[in-house]
Each structure stands twice: as structure tokens, then as C-alpha cells.
Amino acid sequence: MNQQYINLITNLFSLSLTQLLYKFQVYPAECFHQKSAVGLTLWSLKQSILSEYVDKLIQQLQDLISILEGIEIQIKQENKILTTYTINIVFNQENNEQFSQFDSDIQLKTLIYTLNQKLKTYKVDDKPKTFSVNFLSNGAETQNKGVQENLLQNWILIKETKKRETQLVNSLHMPNLDILVGLI
Q1: What's the CA gap between 94 and 176, in Å, rounded?
Q2: Superkingdom, according to UniProt (predicted)?
Q3: Which of 90, 160, 172, 182 has the fewest Cβ atoms nearer than 10 Å?
């Protein structure tokens, strides 16, 4: 798999997760600081146990990306889902075109900017919230013993066949890769 695709997806996941955690006040504002990334001012996690946890999620995402068709980030309050942010990943192996880092950065900037604009419309209260991350498999994990072991050691596996309905927020189309981003 092309390293640019892996970087693009992991960066999108990392930046999206952090923006959602900040906006929905899952953790106190003191856990975050602003930084510039892809030409935008974004929220980033300060070095902490939380940032180490997110780094582990990103490493696992990189290890599992070849079997994923999507990623969900859910924000919950009192066991009720407030919002679900989805990243649907569609690989197209038929097209061998390449794309530049510049193209990748522009696409990432567009997706994160759109997410931040959408998040501005949400009203958030001070009640405690939690989050969960779901990696949605394409079923290929049964083909690879190493991937199976990683999943069994690090994840709670749930077999679910229904497709979730999401409101399309934005999409990214690059050679060999389409990413559709939705928010419920």
C-alpha cells in the first residue's frame, strides 16, 4: 500500500479525533493547545497519557489500514451517541496514477476545514462525555494471521453487517483512493 495513502488516512484520523475531542469537551481545554497544520490553526493534544493513547491508536491504524473500509469516531454522553464521524475508505487498485504531497495536503486541509466549519454549528453542554473509535473491517483480516492477532489483542471485535447512514460532509478523490467523510 502506498505510504502517502497511509499518511493521509492516519493524519485525517488524528486531526479529526482531536478536533472532536476538543469541540465536545471530552477532556478539559487544558489538555489541548493550538498549532498550525496543513495551513490551518487546529487543536492538538498536549503531551500526556491521552496523547500516548492516541499515538497507539494511530500505530494500530497504520498496521490495520489494508483491511479497513472505514473508521468511526463516536462521541457519547450518558451512553447516548451524540455524534458519529465516519471516514469511509475505498481503494481502487485499477488506477496507478500518483499524487503529490501538495495534493495530499490540500485534500487533508479541505476535509479538516469542512469538519471544523460543521462543528461550529453544534451546541455543547458541560456534562461529561466519552468517545469510542471503531475500525470497520472489509473482512480481509481472516487472510492474515498477524492482523488477526493484532485485532484480538487490541480490539473488541463485533460482527456487524448493516451499513450506517451518515450525512456526507465532504469527499476526497485521489488516484486509487476515495475517502468519504460523514457526520451524524
Answers
A1: 7
A2: Eukaryota
A3: 160
